[in-house]
């Protein structure tokens, strides 16, 4: 069952394919420059001619560089830029789930009720938020023009990761509040993410791991990556914590750091001044996964930690809970739905998909896995370089602390991007943690699932993604 609103899906950073118009007049969709699929990611990073290796113009701010790059569509499967954010599963599962509920991209002869919104994720979230209105508002008018139940249609945004920042800017700063009914964010870094700070300070240099190109200048030229910087005080400073604008952050543009902080504070001020921001927003956050939360700056490098002193708030493995909870809410806010899952898989998680359906229809959907009461905390490397094995470490919450209960039978499964099982192993115990080791995996982007090994297991599975780099560039 559908609502009568226009549903718009926004992916996270790197989650939209990019292309350029050809000299022969061919569309951008025929000349893709960012569309890695399965094991093809390294082809874009080893040729030296990809536009993704070229820095954006200095001082680009909230403008487009005029380089002919256009967003084309949402990434259908696993995608990653090593050293820039984290591997993400694609958006096909989410889009197909919405279509199964009756939303239509082509409209079947009528106006579309579902728009997968692709955007140039290199650019400022302010730019993409402004552009969002030029796509959404005409589509909403077409839907309303059908009359009847659609006459009062509004927009519902479903946003993964950075897509939530784009939608928030449109809603609060570009007039979108008037046409928006609901904002659903999945793992959005409302207050930023420590990973972005570590990546910008330390760089993504040639010769690190498999890279034969230097992505440092490219990453440090992206306004969007700066706008993922933590707004909260996360940098160790004496006996306390400082914000990025209160200390000298090495190796990066001070002006871009300051502008990113203004981006966050402007949004927070607008939301605080509009009470409806709270009633329209649904926060879905990943929890219980080891997540980098704070940073120590030393000798020109950033060193991350999962804790604030003795406190560990965890998160989704990429965005800590501190960064994921917005609207000035405390970490135990009732505005947030908490799902034990990794950032890479929130938009594909079955419980999350059920939650989205409930929000859209305002009708209860029976939750899956209600009896699965054991939660996994997993650490899966983003990248496995040649000559190294994939090591997946994890703990079960029911086995942490207190008297040691009987250990549950567990398994770790590695699947290709197409779903083929590549390997499955039972973990061993090392240093008090469970570890599964996989050697000789084929190169490619793979899905890693940590789950109970027995039928009827009460363990909630956790899914993540890793890239196994080829021995030689292909």
Describe this structure in words.
With 474 residues, the chain is an alpha/beta fold. The chain has two domains: 6-361, 3-Layer(aba) Sandwich (Rossmann fold); 376-468, Sandwich (Immunoglobulin-like). It is built from eleven helices and 24 strands. Strands 7-1-8-9-12-15 form a six-stranded parallel beta sheet, sandwiched between helices. A five-stranded mixed beta sheet has the order 17-24-23-19-20, with no helix packed on it. It is globular and about 65 Å long.
Give the SSE map:
Layout: E1 6-10, E2 16-20, E3 32-34, H1 41-46, E4 69-74, E5 79-81, E6 84-88, H2 92-100, E7 114-116, H3 125-144, E8 155-160, H4 163-173, E9 180-186, H5 194-202, H6 216-220, H7 223-226, E10 235-237, E11 240-242, H8 254-272, H9 276-280, E12 281-286, E13 294-298, E14 301-305, H10 321-324, E15 336-339, H11 350-361, E16 376-379, E17 383-384, E18 390-396, E19 410-416, E20 421-425, E21 428-430, E22 433-438, E23 444-452, E24 462-468
Parallel strand pairs: 1-7, 1-8, 8-9, 9-12, 12-15, 17-24
Antiparallel strand pairs: 2-3, 2-4, 5-6, 10-11, 13-14, 16-18, 18-22, 19-20, 19-23, 21-22, 23-24
Helix pairs in contact: 3-4
Largest sheet report: 6 strands, parallel
CATH topology of the largest domain: Rossmann fold
Question: Which term fits the overall shape?
Answer: globular
First-last Cα distance: 46 Å
Strand content: 25-35%
Helix content: 10-25%
Give me the count of strands.
24
Number of domains: 2
Ranges where pLDDT stays below 50 over 5 or more residues in a row are: none
Q: What is the CATH superfamily label of the largest domain?
A: Alpha/Beta hydrolase fold, catalytic domain
Question: Which architecture of the largest domain would the CATH scheme give at its second level?
Answer: 3-Layer(aba) Sandwich
Strand order of the largest sheet: 7-1-8-9-12-15
Total helix count?
11
Q: Radius of gyration in whole Å, from Cα?
A: 22 Å
Q: Average pLDDT across residues?
A: 89
Provide the structure class: alpha/beta
CATH class term of the largest domain = Alpha Beta
């Amino acid at each position: 069952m559908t609502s009568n609103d226009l549903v718009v899906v926004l992916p996270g950073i790197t989650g939209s394919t990019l292309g350029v118009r050809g000299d022969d007049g061919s569309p951008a969709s025929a000349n893709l420059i960012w569309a890695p699929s399965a094991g093809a990611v390294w082809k874009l990073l080893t040729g030296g001619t990809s536009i993704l290796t070229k820095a954006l113009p200095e001082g680009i701010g909230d403008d487009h560089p005029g380089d002919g790059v256009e967003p084309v569509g949402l990434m259908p499967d696993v995608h990653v830029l090593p050293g820039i954010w984290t591997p993400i599963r694609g958006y096909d599962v989410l889009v197909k789930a919405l279509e199964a509920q009756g939303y239509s991209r082509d409209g079947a002869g009528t106006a579309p009720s579902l728009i997968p919104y692709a955007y140039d994720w290199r650019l400022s979230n302010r730019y993409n938020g402004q552009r969002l209105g030029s796509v959404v508002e005409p589509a909403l008018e077409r839907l309303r023009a059908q009359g009847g139940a659609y006459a009062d249609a509004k927009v519902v945004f479903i946003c993964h990761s950075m897509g939530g920042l784009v939608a928030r800017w449109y809603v609060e700063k570009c007039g979108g509040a008037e046409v928006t009914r609901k904002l659903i964010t999945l793992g959005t870094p409302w207050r930023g993410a420590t990973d972005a700070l570590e990546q910008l300070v330390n760089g993504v240099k040639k010769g690190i791991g498999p890279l034969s190109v230097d992505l440092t200048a490219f990453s440090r030229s992206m306004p969007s990556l700066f706008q993922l910087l933590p707004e909260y005080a996360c940098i160790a400073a004496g006996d306390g914590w400082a914000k990025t604008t209160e200390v000298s952050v090495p190796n990066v543009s001070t002006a871009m750091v300051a502008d990113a902080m203004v981006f966050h504070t402007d949004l927070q001020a607008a939301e605080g001044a509009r009470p409806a921001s709270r009633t329209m927003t649904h926060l879905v956050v990943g929890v219980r996964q080891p997540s980098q939360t704070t940073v120590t700056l030393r000798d020109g490098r950033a060193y991350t930690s999962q804790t604030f002193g003795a406190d560990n708030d965890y998160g989704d493995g990429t965005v800590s809970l501190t960064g994921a909870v917005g609207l000035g809410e405390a970490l135990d806010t009732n505005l947030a739905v908490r799902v034990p899952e990794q950032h890479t898989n929130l938009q594909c998680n079955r419980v999350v998909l059920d939650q989205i359906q409930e929000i859209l229809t305002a009708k209860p959907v029976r939750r899956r896995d209600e009896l699965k009461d054991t939660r996994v905390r997993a650490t899966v490397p983003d990248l496995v370089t040649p000559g190294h094995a994939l090591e997946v470490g994890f703990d079960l919450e029911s086995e942490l602390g207190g008297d040691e209960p009987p250990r549950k039978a567990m398994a770790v499964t590695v699947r290709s991007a197409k779903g083929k099982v590549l390997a499955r192993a039972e973990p061993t115990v090392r240093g008090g943690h469970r570890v599964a080791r996989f050697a000789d995996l084929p190169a490619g982007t793979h899905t890693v699932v940590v789950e109970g090994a027995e039928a009827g297991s009460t363990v909630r599975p956790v899914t993540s993604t890793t890239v196994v780099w080829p021995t030689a560039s292909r």
